[in-house]
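User: Show me a protein chain along with its predicted structure.
Assistant: Here is one chain, sequence first, then structure tokens.
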Amino acid sequence: MNKAFLRLVAEDIQQRYGKDISDIAVVFNNKRPITYLKKHLVDVYQQAIWSPQFFTIQEFFSLSTTKVQASPISQFFYLYELHNELLAKEGVEPETLEEFYPIAEIILSDFSQLDYDLVDIAQIFMELSDTTEIELAFQHFTPEQQAFIRQFWQSFSVQGHTGVQKRFLRLWRRLPTLYKAFKERLQAEGQTNFPTIYRDLAEGKAENEIFVDQFKQVLFVGFNALNRAEAKLFREWQEQGKALFYFDADSHYLDDKLQEAGLFIRRNIFQTGLLNALGDVPNVIGNRADDVHVYQSLGKISETKLLYDLLSENQDQSKSSAILLADESMLVPLLQSLPYTDVNITTGYPLIQSPIYGLLDLWMNVQVLISQQHKEKIPYQLLETYLTNPMSKVSKQQKQQIQTESADKQLFEVEVKEIDISQSVLPHFFRKLQSAEQTIPTLSAMIDSLLLSLADNDRIRQIESNLLMETKKVLNQLQLGFSNLGKLSIGFQIGLIRKALGPISSAIEGNPLKGLQIMGLLESRCLNFDQVYILGANEGILPKTSNSPTFLPNNLRKAYGLPVLENQDALSAYLFYRHFQYSSDIHLFYNAVVSESSSGEESRFIKQLEFETKFNFVKHTQQQPLTFPTQPQELVIEKTGEVWNKLYGSYIKHGKRISASAFTSYLQSPLQFFLKYVADIKEPPSISQEFEMNKLGTVIHESMEELLAPLKAVDDFVATESLKAKLEIADQVVLKQIGNEYLTSFNTVNELNSLQRIMHKIAAEYVKMYLRYDIDQYQAIRIVELENSDDYILDFPIEINGSIETVSLYGIIDRVDEVLTKDGQTKLRIVDYKTGSDSVTFRNLDVVFAANTENKALVQTLFYAYVYEQVTGLRNLEPHLYVARRMREDGTVFKNNNGSFVLSHQTLAEQKEVFVAFLKSTLEELFDQQVPFKHNPDAAVYPSDPFTLFYKYSVKESAVED
């Protein structure tokens, strides 16, 4: 296999200079290759020597000046102030910070590009109006370049510019003045930036133009795309005998002018005239016939899963391995899919995808609400987000207390002053800022607290600590910039803070010479690995189909030789192709799913290599399984051991009561009964953003009890006409009960949140409907009992393992009354209120008295009636179901398809006997050790059922909950 590029460089250095290399400078495009070249030098020399001096190109050029580098934030503030000064001279309203930030990024990028490529600023931005002036000003340009210039200016000669065009033209005209003022400001502050350093060096204006003379020779290693400043300086230093160049290339793409991968090296060698110290380059790519594996995946995440499988199978520690991210957004899912942790990552873990940013962003959202908009309440979701963020470290006890209290009160909004998070890393997180000037200092103090909390864990976690330190640096720079701008609102500051924090990332450093290396394609320059895995090898990503934003139109960029999209294609092709020169085991992954962010096609570079070379491209297609996944194993709970001891001990030995709800729960799903009433698994507290029917039911029951309670104290019949007075106070009674339900008190409906208002409207209508029904149907009424369960407990005999035992039954009876009908008859009734979709009609009794009954309400009402009759000795109690949704159509008395269920006292008594038999057999089944607890697959499972995940079949058919 071909020697690694840096190994060839190390061998050439030894051959040329022997051991005398301490006064040689070695310059790379980035830091990553330095470690590798040092290792190759050690291997080549096999003895201790003085090392050469290593630099990145920017570090090397910076030796020409003593000025301090201006930070990106400082440059933005300089530009912002200067731009607004120009606007003031034009009589134009100044830009706000948030408005100018994205514009400033583009302006600074354009200024940098023009400096790197030594473009005359005044000329490129000059105003031209006719062809003659164009020809005079640009007569030194080629005809093709002049055509590009003409095309651009003619596009602006059209009369009637739009508002956007006019604004752009005004900005365009002031850019030369802004550029000059910006450079003067940097000079005045004793600062500089890399574009200025490059331009000053190339134009002979540097403080120290002879800094290169301190080295015997300067070796530029692995350079590809050079800007004009670099090309000019490199050629001059080569002519002076000071510079030597090592180009990493292959004749397959270097000698063929149609190959875009060789565009820049051809330009360096044949146009700029730089000599390759390694001499002629071999044709490795054209002569190789190795296998290259291409994996078609069904989504980005699938790419990382496929890679996981591959890495799990191929962990050859003797080979160097690298994962190259053509799509760097895949870093986080990749990290979550790696089969081992011996990795070195320099791509950078983005702050914006970390829990730290989640916490900082949450704080900024909260401050916008409470400090800028002066709100006293915040949505509960913001508090919940803080509680669940791993960086906040709220104590378990305090978290549970807050969640339980908020769920009990169903606090969709929380009073800020009542939030207690004292047992967390940031106890003052929800404190209101006293002034806008406190914004950044408060954020900085939060970062200090987070750093301390990481240090308390015996070791400071590298990624988080690096991100926090970088964040604090940016905030300090922002604070310095803000100090010169007068009073700024909290909203403005937060908007700019968000933009400034966006680019922050942290390298995940490991051993760069050992283990799995993870980096972007650009970072892989000069480096070679035995095994290479490239993720995101999609058309549209490799190469990219868009350039960075710019105010320099494409035809002008072409005319002035500035980088255009084709240059990006050439760079991407080179970065991709060079791995085919060295790596023996190449695996390419691409996303075959077509979406807004994916073309669904493999990169054209793959197709080009497949067509032009002898490589054998082995295609792997990820197939979507056609078979349905196997059903999870059914959960069956045998009534043995601790399960039986708990069941028998609780209900038989210690007399735990079985309610009507528990009984019908068993009918619907024995497994649900076990989970709720034997295992005592409770649903965690939560705040629902949806309407909760169970709370509505409670409010209605409590309201009816309060309204009818005065009648219970009256022994005689009361005319139903008197209930009309109850209609007038129903709204206020319902309001009171809603307050009780949410552990608070309300004086008016306006104090309710949106869902509570809906609840109030429905509950009040239902209560009034129940009252009107009694007024319309009966002459008089006598209340016998209301919502009382304490006195109605029945010991019910059943057979368990051949012995007679008793189980306690009880029911919370909504209402027992005696009514006088319109025709003068009296009826003793038991009434059950229902707020769901229950029905008082049924097909036959076999369906009613059966497991998984569709008539739960009917069974529960008969359960109440039976318990009440047995305890009180009363007989002929007629069950009535008040179903608000169905009362007008179905009435309140149970009916089968042939008419009324309650035809006479005789038939009612017969059906009650049938029910008792059904009750006894069901309870004996419950305590039958041979019948395990398991879910009935035919049961209708409500979407809100918290035990759904325990069932073998989650939801057979959606149902409406009571």
